[in-house]
Here is the input.
Amino acid sequence: MGRQSAGIGASRLREVFALVRFFGARFGPGEPRLYGTWVAYNLRAGTVFRTQWYRDDELVFTDAWTAPRDGEQLCIWFYVTPQDVEFLPGRWQIRLFADEINAATPIEFLIEGDTMEG
Here is the structure.
């Protein structure tokens, strides 16, 4: 799918900002998109970033992106929409990997409330 932006060596990646945290880490099921963002330092072209999105400890979505060029400091971001995975209430988590190495502390958030369906 690859709807993201940049890359590095996993040991140099640090999570600095996640929109899910910025908005209080609580959402309703009617959100149009949910984002996770990180900053990558000393990015190497060809680094493959992958996210895994979990709801209540069950893997519900994954996405990947390959960095097209080197960079000193770049924002990388991944997002999901209700078309990718239904935003059901529960405890959610985003895990980031760089070249299959765990690259950041997981981002955790909640989706609360009733689903949009009947």
The beta strands are 26-27, 34-43, 48-55, 58-66, 71-80, 90-98, 101-102, 107-111. The first helix runs from residue 19 to 22. The chain has one helix and eight strands. Helices lie at 19-22.
